């Protein structure tokens, strides 16, 4: 009943019917009881389920926002440079293991080498032809991932098709935190594309592309350790790198045999090609020996050196591509 009704009854008395459901008042005692329970739960270190649900929802919203941000940054690459025309994101990984100081001597600073971080992820973009996989880059990527927090991504350009699965996963599996780009120090983007020669861009606006696997390898290695300060030693490293790419990888059978004899002689005097320390010369020559198919027929000192390289643990990705 929504209104008062006055009804006359016998004897002159008046009956008033009051509304029974005009107002609903909250159960104060029940609320007080719930409040006491919540306070008791908080005192015992428990969290209100409603708060938990709210936090979970906030985390999910932040995750989606970071995914959206990463997608927008990927599209920005496509707009700013045709070399980064990304059609398919394949994998993304994060590595932050401790770097073995026994592998490479010297320390490097990213801000000094490639400029101070202004808030955006510093991304190295490499275009490579799947018909000629750059083995040295996989080894250097493995080393970089142990020195820095690297966001690694593989893409496929529309100019190529039927890319083998091992090339799609060559930088490792997609990491759960790949949307959170602020967690990383360095981006490593590999794009499988129909290019005549491997090329790399770091700063799209201010830098011409670096072309050739040897040149790109030199750039990446300098992010790990400085080149030898001794000019003679630096020249020796460069000489072995050029020999690896121009004679071992692209030379005739006679040239490869000559290089293998030179390797055997040098490794009879020192454990590594540039002396007592591991260097880019070892990375380049190891990869080119493997790529040329000369590993099984190599002389004794070269065989021993190949095993020493493999024992370092950084050459696994390169070997997998050739299996």
TrEMBL record:
Places the protein is found: Cytoplasm, Cytosol; Nucleus
Swiss-Prot/TrEMBL keywords: Apoptosis, Cytoplasm, Developmental protein, Differentiation, Nucleus, Phosphoprotein, Protein biosynthesis, Ubl conjugation
CDD domains noted in UniProt: GST_C_AIMP2
Residue ranges of domain AIMP2 thioredoxin-like in the record: 120-211
Lineage top rank: taxon: Eukaryota
Domain spans labelled Glutathione S-transferase C-terminal: 251-292
GO terms under biological process: apoptotic process; cell differentiation; translation
GO CC annotation: aminoacyl-tRNA synthetase multienzyme complex; cytosol; nucleus
Domain AIMP2 lysyl-tRNA synthetase binding: 1-47
Cell inner membrane listed as a keyword: no
Oligomeric and partner information: Part of the multisynthetase complex (MSC), a multisubunit complex that groups tRNA ligases for Arg (RARS1), Asp (DARS1), Gln (QARS1), Ile (IARS1), Leu (LARS1), Lys (KARS1), Met (MARS1) the bifunctional ligase for Glu and Pro (EPRS1) and the auxiliary subunits AIMP1/p43, AIMP2/p38 and EEF1E1/p18. Interacts (via N-terminus) with KARS1. Interacts with EPRS1. Forms a linear complex that contains MARS1, EEF1E1, EPRS1 and AIMP2 that is at the core of the multisubunit complex. Binds FUBP1 (via C-terminus).
Function: Required for assembly and stability of the aminoacyl-tRNA synthase complex. Mediates ubiquitination and degradation of FUBP1, a transcriptional activator of MYC, leading to MYC down-regulation which is required for aveolar type II cell differentiation. Blocks MDM2-mediated ubiquitination and degradation of p53/TP53. Functions as a proapoptotic factor.
Record's protein name: Aminoacyl tRNA synthase complex-interacting multifunctional protein 2
Organism: Seriola lalandi dorsalis
């Amino acid at each position: 009943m929504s209104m008062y009704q006055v009804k006359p009854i016998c004897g002159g008395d008046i009956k008033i019917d009051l509304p029974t459901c005009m107002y609903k008042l909250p159960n104060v005692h029940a609320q007080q009881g719930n409040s006491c329970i919540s306070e008791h739960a908080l005192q015992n270190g428990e969290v209100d389920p409603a708060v938990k649900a709210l936090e979970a929802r906030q985390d999910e919203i932040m995750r989606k926002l970071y995914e959206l941000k990463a997608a927008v940054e990927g599209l920005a690459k496509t707009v700013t440079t045709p070399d980064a025309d990304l059609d398919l994101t394949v994998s993304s990984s994060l590595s932050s293991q401790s770097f073995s100081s026994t592998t490479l001597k010297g320390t490097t600073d990213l801000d000094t080498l490639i400029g101070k971080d202004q808030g955006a992820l510093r991304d190295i973009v490499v275009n490579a032809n799947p018909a000629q996989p750059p083995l040295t880059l996989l080894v250097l990527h493995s080393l970089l991932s142990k020195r820095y927090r690297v966001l690694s991504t593989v893409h496929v350009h529309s100019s190529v098709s039927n890319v083998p699965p091992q090339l799609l996963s060559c930088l490792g599996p997609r990491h759960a935190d790949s949307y959170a780009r602020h967690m990383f120090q360095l981006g490593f983007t590999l794009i499988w594309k129909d290019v005549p020669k491997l090329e790399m861009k770091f700063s799209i606006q201010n830098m011409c592309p670096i072309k050739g696997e040897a040149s790109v390898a030199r750039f990446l290695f300098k992010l790990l350790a400085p080149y030898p300060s001794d000019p003679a030693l630096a020249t020796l490293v460069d000489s072995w790198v050029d020999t690896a790419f121009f004679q071992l990888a692209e030379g005739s059978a006679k040239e490869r045999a000559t290089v293998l004899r030179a390797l055997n002689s040098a490794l009879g005097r020192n454990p590594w090609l540039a002396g007592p320390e591991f260097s880019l010369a070892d990375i380049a020559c190891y990869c080119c020996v493997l790529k040329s198919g000369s590993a099984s027929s190599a002389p004794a000192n070269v065989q021993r050196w190949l095993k020493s390289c493999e024992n370092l643990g950084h050459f696994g990705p390169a070997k997998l591509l050739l299996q």
